[in-house]
Amino acid sequence: MADSSEKQRQSGESPRSAEPATLPSVNAVEKPEPAQSSLHPAFYVVAWIGFSGGVILFNKYLLDTMGFRFPIVLTTWHMVFATFMTQVLSRTTTLIDGRKTVKMTGKVYLRAILPIGFFFSLSLICGNKAYLYLSVAFIQMLKATMPVAVLITSWILAVAPINLKQLGNVSFIVIGVVIASVGEIKFDLTGFLWQAGGISFEATRLVMVQRLLSSAEYKMDPLTSLYYFAPVCALMNGVVALFTEVPTMTMQNIYNVGYVVLIANALVAFMLNVSVVFLIGKTSSLVLTLCGVLKDILLVAASMMIWGTPVSGTQFFGYSIALGGLMYYKLGADQLKQHVAQAGRSWQEFGQNKPATRKALIFGLVLFVMFILLGGLAPTYAPEQTGKLRDYMGFNTGGVVNAHP
């Protein structure tokens, strides 16, 4: 009887001893697959272009067209709103969970976050001040020099070794922007200096961020960076605004713009950072570079059509050189050749498979280019007719466009 019971006990243990061997296969089957995004990458690209260009046009509209001539107060409001939203998102979503991997200490905050926030604040102030004096079109042309400023700043701060070959690669950007500046019809030295300062401070900030992020323990996505930098910028900009713009500002200035418009403006600025987070990893460096160039071109065209900004042929020529130099610097000659050849083959295959669709795309592109050229060149070569058309369509700004304080 004892032998029988012993056999039963041993036979009962047999399945248990074999059970662990079956666990990996069972877990592999039952483990749920991660949810895949149902949105096409083009959605994120369009969203980024829309918010990025929307912030610039919205700021210009507020500061110039609507007469809210308090750029430092506006940047302070943006940073206060961003501080509030990042705090809300950090407590209600996983979008800013990246902060949990950042080893943030008081020493790091004082030695890294505060200095970077300081230059971020200066770049925002100078960049928004420029909208009071310069057109959106000319500002975008000047911003093409950002890679040059970052390269030189990285040499000054000893973050990267001096490379004369890289300097030669960016020389076309400088030449193009110089030509575009010479051709600027409404050149304003004050606005030019404000924008140059904004580019210099932004380049310094980017190089300092690059040095900070060189350590794996401080890797941050744009939204996590905003979580740390927004409070610093809000405080610094607020102090500057308190002594420069607030004394001359009244509540009537805010009432003239409206609370809804100010909230919408801050929301668009914040959504730009959110769209960048979703865009990262969805597209290649080529797509990002081309989208940046497309965004700049669309902003120049929008400035010409909305505000009637006159742009000379010399500026078109110079800006084309600058954009070409920008793409060459970011992608390199070999990579550009490969992408161009691949694009040519893809276009040829597309034409063979869908000839009617390709013809429709070509026709639409021709119409779009003609619309951009005619709409953009009209303010330069037919100012009176353009003014009448803009008044008829309701774009009359009451004579405050390009007015100086």
Automatic annotation (TrEMBL):
Segments traversing the membrane: 41-62, 68-88, 108-125, 131-160, 167-187, 225-244, 256-279, 313-329, 360-382
Entry protein name: Sugar phosphate transporter domain-containing protein
Assembly, per entry: Homooligomer.
Domain Sugar phosphate transporter as annotated: residue spans: 42-329
Primary location group: endoplasmic reticulum
Disordered: annotated span: 1-24
Membrane topology: Multi-pass membrane protein
Coiled-coil intervals, chain numbering: none
Annotated compartments: Endoplasmic reticulum membrane
One GO CC term, this protein: endoplasmic reticulum membrane
Superkingdom of the organism of origin: Eukaryota
Compositionally biased intervals (Basic and acidic residues): 1-10
Functional summary from the UniProt entry: Involved in the import of GDP-mannose from the cytoplasm into the Golgi lumen.
InterPro entries: Sugar_P_trans_dom, TPT_transporter
